[in-house]
């Protein structure tokens, strides 16, 4: 099913429910008076008996937008090593969420976020001053053909440049999704291209989130803008975390 | 001797009194307005506790200034007050020894920053959320919704645990398994439970240690890390999942039991179930 069949504007009249299929879940939308009954459930589950109701006003428009999770994602690349002055490019798959807006895409009109896959919690940094994140896992791909992308997944191209004199063992990599846009590329969704430059253990590394003709095509088709409204270059340490609690 | 009322209730004194009342009224209003403005302009990054301290400082300094203004308005000489300060200080000191101790302890508490408003703390056998930090005491809202007042002096002299100071915590769960069980398998099952629970963090890694050879089984500790806000959800879900995972893996959780023997050479006493008619 084309993603544009899911992520679009819906005009739904009274009493006729719309069932939207998104990956492994169904999103059921029903207009009731000046509001909406909205619910989601897995393919393997029965339809829930109670639905969430949102009183929104007279507009009968509802818009579904793809988005990413609320917390940064941590990729565990424990088996990836990059020699000095080498660039490694790989892809990871990120599960998307569906944002439901009424009337128009203004952030005040966001009425519900539907999570397709609940990712596991993780922590990036020291226990006393790190940052909460979701665990993306350790699955990565070197070639786009290997990906077998599902409808609810976005492809994230990542490039890591080891601009230091030592081997870089990529242990844990944080992807700040609030800086990422979502693009439609053919029938798939791609996130911003993440370019990381590692300059050494004691030097602040840089991360750049942006578009690339290679991955996003000549003409950009933006589905969602970054959560913080800009794809900014960041100065961050991105890989230093080691399992220091292993023997605690 | 005749008391000269006219000396005190003169027009001049009446005017003075009126002026003092006006000064007090206007002064109180100004202090109130200043505290409101200060509260509004304090940066959002400031903690609740810091905001409260600054606000109270403004409030007390304001009223201290107001007292001095009133004294100067009444043209009262402060020299006799300062002369008597030693005696007054001694009297006040003896009378309010505990209160002063609490106030001083309060300053130490504030400067130490061991906890802030909203933190969950444990003092002795009491625990709850810090509700307010006042001049003489701190107030805690317990989990069963009671307000607990603890004098600052007690807080400073008692061991205090700040449960929510750091963003993540470790929950330690003691599990006991029967002696016959394969400990490698037990460890594997516990690792799986921690890994599959979305609220348990993979980093820092879960801790699994074999603690002691207990009376009824081998005691194992599972420590899982989680975000501090998820305490109850993690505790309940991990507990249930351990039991379920052990049942599925056929791992026995032993209950306390005693085997009776008549002597070295005998087997355990035979037990038979007799009905009430026999």
Average pLDDT of chain A, to the nearest integer?
85
Q: Strand fraction band of chain B?
A: 15-25%
Gyration radius of chain A (Cα, Å) is 20 Å
Overall shape of chain A: elongated
Largest β sheet strand count, sense and barrel closure of chain A: 8 strands, mixed
Structural class by SSE content of chain A:
mainly beta
With strands numbered from the N-terminus, the spatial order across the biggest sheet of chain B is 4-3-2-1-5
Largest interface, with Cβ-Cβ < 8 Å? A-B, 22 and 18 residues
CATH class of the largest domain in chain B: Alpha Beta
Number of E strands of chain A: 20
CATH topology category name of the largest domain in chain B: Alpha-Beta Plaits
Poorly predicted runs of chain B:
none
User: In DSSP terms, counting alpha (H) and pi (I) runs of 4 or more, how many helices of chain A?
Assistant: 2
Termini separation of chain A comes to 49 Å
CATH-derived architecture of the largest domain in chain B: 2-Layer Sandwich
For the sheet with most strands of chain B, the description reads:
5 strands, antiparallel
Structurally, how many domains make up the residues of chain A? Answer: 2
Q: In percent, how helical is the residue content of chain A?
A: under 10%
Strand count of chain B: 8
Written overview of the protein:
The complex is a heterodimer of chains A (248) and B (278). Chain A is mostly beta strands. Helices cover 3% and strands 49% of the residues of chain A. In chain A, the strands form four sheets. In chain A, strands 8, 13, 15, 16, 17, 18, 19 and 20 form an eight-stranded mixed sheet that branches. A four-stranded antiparallel sheet of chain A has the order 1-6-9-10, with no helix packed on it. Helices cover 47% and strands 19% of the residues of chain B. Chain B has helices at 5-8, 11-41, 48-73, 79-83, 85-95, 97-112, 152-157, 183-196, 231-249, and strands spanning 120-123, 126-133, 137-142, 147-151, 160-162, 168-177, 207-213, 218-227. In chain B, helix 2 runs antiparallel to helix 3 (48-73) and helix 8 crosses helix 9 (231-249). The termini of chain B are far apart. Chain A binds chain B through residues 74, 76, 118-124, 127-130, 132, 135, 172, 241, 243-246, 248, and chain B through 166-168, 195, 197-205, 207, 225-227, 230.
